[in-house]
Queue: 4 jobs
Job 1
Amino acid sequence: MSSSAVETVSPVRAWILASRPATLPAAAVPVLVGTSVAMNESAAFRPAVFAATLACALLIQVGTNFVNDYSDFRRGADTEARLGPLRVTQSGLISTSAIRIGIIVAFGLAVLVGAWLCTVGGWPILAIGTLSVLSGIAYTGGPFPLGYHGLGDVFVFLFFGVIAVTGTAYLQTGDWSRDALTQSIPIGLLATNILVVNNLRDRHTDVAAGKHTLAVRIGERATRAQYALFAGAAYTVPIAFALKGEFRPWFLLPLLTVPFALFLARRVLSGTSGRELNPVLEQSGKLLLAFGILTAVGTLLSR
């Protein structure tokens, strides 16, 4: 974005950019899926718990995005050579002091909402919430930033897949669900693919900044294969659920997104690179959202 275009960005728009809306499905979808599994198993639905869980997940995601914007700029990963969307700290739209306040506010609100959830779910939710906040900060911040040591993919799979889906279901029912654990796998894989595209696009600039993401470590070809493998593996779970015991076709609803997934996988495998990957990143978030909604609907209809 040119300097003149940057000057026309309003303060509200700047904070929206800092929150990275394209990544927010990764926070919302696990809550939808975990709640649907809980309703499938126990026919119970606690609206206040659902709303608080969703709010907490989104606040932690936004706080993490603020930390990433701040830390990547301070560590030299975000420069004028950046190929991805505008970053507010690097561009000067939001000062480093202001973004630090934003980090405190986002995580502070998450802690306040999470405190009430701890009264509902007890010490397991306290542990999950604490780890989520600390990991969100440590993703690019602190003395050992996870994203700079090739651990970002593991972080996303666990916290936006396994932990988020199973933790949400637990908050609704008070029990740990095997089905929630299984349903968390495709959600984690598709959420991780958002990061895979991001790191594929930024591989060369990350090398220059000393940011050793998994894409940097395994190389371009393997990273493109990783995206296709994760996308394909995600669809094995709804098929397995549909065929488990009595055939339940509603579990196959996520397969409606297969053409979209194939389109994105082809783009990644075809060698699409640089700024041309920005739409793929945004569309990967939309794929996760569509897959998650259809998973939740299919799960509810299979009760």
Job 2
Amino acid sequence: MIRDEFDYVVIGAGSAGCAVAGRLSEDPAVEVALIEAGPSDSNPAIHVPARFWEQQKSTLDWDFESEPEPALNGRRTYLPRGRVLGGTSSMNTMLYVRGAAEDYDSWAAAGCDGWSFDDVLPLFKRSEDNARGESRFHGVGGPLAIEDPAVPALLSHWVAAAEEAGHPANDDFNGEAQDGVGVYQVTQRGGRRASSSTAFLGPNLGRPNLTVLTCTQALRLQWIGGRASGVEVDRFGDAEVVRAAREVIVCAGAYLSPQLLMLSGVGPADHLREMGIEPVLDNPAVGENLMDHPGCFLNYPARIGAGEGKGWVEAG
């Protein structure tokens, strides 16, 4: 049985949830529960960067697919999402890329006080332990390890060719601008993945006020007078309720957060009624306006020069 009540209940131990739970539990006066549908991140394929692909379509992957896409001639596309501590930060390709400054500034201009790029940059820097050292855009000493990857000769030739073709060079996609060609920094340290779990959660698991509930599927939010008071979960086949004295924080990702809200009665009221769900709050924006970034990968054999052998170029 899960204890009756916590101060904060965080749903989803992914990129956001691990960071939120880790930060909240810095206050020893509050009790924090972190709920994750998947298992712990003990699988070696998570931590060895070159083995990331082994997780795809495995028990560590939600293995979603899209609805038939008109722009793809009606085909569905695979949507990999981590189902494990660390979420997709435990199975992605570890490129370290923040949002564009213009996006944050547009949110602030639309009325989201405190969300301009100048507002959020100190928080990014606080989270970083960047191997390049401290600068205007980067920080050191934070929990998330970031470094420059080893660059094979072939990649150096590829970048040089792109510059020769007229594309601007960019040695920091989290610096002045994101346009250009160069080599991404990665969330790694010493040949190991740095996920949200290893950065924000793992070092804090010994805190007595932090409870991590793996293999626990959030089913729907509980309400008292229009306020989220807890979440009903499936834990090893048993239905239980985890209650929150202060806040329920939904961090289930771009796909599962709106799904959980709609299952809980928050979303387009007419659609919810069609699905047999009684609306709690009519919000037509829930579940809308998703924008993804599909990629197309092309492989070419290439000889990179006398004495340098053969290699493969991957263009995305």
Job 3
Amino acid sequence: MKRQSCFLPLVFSLFLISVMITTRVNAQKKGVVNDPNYYETFPEKLTGRIYFSQKFLKFTIPPSGNQTDIEYKANTKLNLGVGVTYHNFSLNIFYGFAFLNRDTEKGVTKGLDLQLHLYPRKWAIDLVALFPKGYHLEPKGYATTANKYYYRDDVKVSLFGISAYQVPNKEKFSYRAAITQNEWQKKSAGSPLYGGTLYYGTVKGDSALVPKSIENNFAQKGIDNINFMAIGAGIGYAYTLVMDKHFFVTLSAVGNLDLTLTSEDGIYGKHRKTSVGPSIVGKGAIGYNSPTWSVSVNALGSTLWTKGDASTKNYYLPVGSIRLAISKKFDIKKHGSK
């Protein structure tokens, strides 16, 4: 059963990739292009950027009553990076320098954190593969002494997720203009979105996830391993408001209805729960864009709610990133040109 669950994300991902390739080939055959009155593309330009970014991830365990939630938060780094985009391909290199990250009081989070956001002409695709270890609880003093944060270096979240949504109004609306800045949205436009998501993950520790000092307030006491898989479909809308051709605000949100399979394992044995619940994929950006320079702040993220057998309340898992970027589009001469 475990092998089948791990295999499903790969099968679903390959299916989405094959659909994307087929769609793109068909679009090229039909000669689908953008409407230059709404946005411009720059096929002979390379977009370079310097940016600051920070990712976020937390896992919330709900209490039995009105007590404070348990919020395991990753102590993620503020990164300084550089990157380039050419056509559909982007490469970014970043590092969390010590002078940008002096907050060591909350403990250390280590591990792989990969988040990819792809924008083929007719699609918006988000892929996450996260394996960070080391989490703290907020507020300060919760479940421990008043002068420090409760920290667990053994708590680990493993999450694989993929979402893919079609963008029907691709001729007038550009995600790339807002997020990667290698295009330029000159006129306000939006598009409906529809597609699906798949998440598979675990949250586990060497001992119970609920701290001993507050376990009587939580039905999940004694649980040290939570495993879940969610698959669903959703619809939404994305819109970019453009002012004076250069200043823009982009908002995008998709609501999904997911079938969720959750198992909880601990000192009282393993219990499984099948439920139906929501998830959300959201994007936002604000800034200035032109054929040469752009400055923007964007936020990309997703949120999953999943229900276990121990409690009638949902676990809550948001993940995403925030980035401030300054970009410039550079001309690349064609081969043989002077």
Job 4
Amino acid sequence: MLGGLLMGFGLGVIGLYCGRLYGGLSPGRVVMYVAFSECLIAVLFFTVIGSPVWKPVEGGPSLADMIFFVVLPVCAGLLAELSAFFPLSSVSCSEAAENELPKAFWKLLTVVFAFSFIVSSVYGVVVECGSVELILDGSKLVMLAQMVLALLLAGVAQVTEGDRLNFGKLYSVVMVASVALVACLPIVSTFQTMLSQIVSLASVTFELFLWCILAFIVYQRNISSVVVFGFGYGLYLTGSAIGWLLGTQALRLLAESIGAPFAYMLMAVVVLVCAFVVFSEREFDLLFLPSSEDDPSLKFLLKKDLKEEATGEETHHGEKRFAVAIDKLSERYQLSPRESDVLRYLVLGYSNDAMAEKLSLALNTVRTYRQYIYAKTGAHTKQDIIRLLEEAMGK
């Protein structure tokens, strides 16, 4: 228990640091990096499983387990430190800390805690009752499925340029599947272990989406990554820990006293209420609704990383469409070169202050250029500008 607490504190620092790194990435890149991370986790898992099982201390972990347990966190910390050499976001920490979290975020936290608590409780019961060999075989299947899911997510993001990824619907599918699986566990006793592994996969999928969602919030709304990931991922891990303790210590006794079907059905109802009352798909959409014309929509942000395209690092035909579209709009509406520069950073989601710093202009000058752009294009909001750009890009 003491070792688990110390590991939690240590990895918590690395987790918050990684949250800051992900929060500085565009959503399209977040999806690709998360998918890559999930594949890497699976590879490391099978590497550890296939390592020699010689144990320096009888009854303790193998030497390979000890090495991985020490080396992997150290490597994570070193790699995170190397990120200091790579700029991530144009938003400063002081500016990000001033923005407030949307109300829908706190509803999401309620669902995160309840879901992780219940799923971990169910899995804890199975681990407590099952054999080590059976649980290990199930974990291997979950890891394989996790890798396939990550590759599928990366493939969809790459083929569709990310803008067709509907995380709201994916959230609803995961929650509905979890409700059905938890409710069916005591009924289909023959396949209880198999179903519990599917519940575990649903938990992994939810964690994958949660990490993406938290990074999206940091990037879109310029909110402190420590606050977003601290509350969001912290509550997920807290719910998992408490649920695991309940599952291994008390849930089986509770199920025996009130009846297993009733106990599991009650947990399924809690997840159902969280998914469709507390934080529904509609609430999910509201979470990423632009709060002002300076905030780009999530759909727009999920497209290809346009920031690289704006700096001229175009290597593919699809990546050049953004620059070509800017030129088309500038020519169509007779924008000056400086107005064209402001237009480029405007649709990329830069604030007036960030544009002024990027273009070495006075803040009032940037505001004047923005007014000229709106007047010449006939647009009333930033979303109107983005629609004109999408039309020029052939979206």
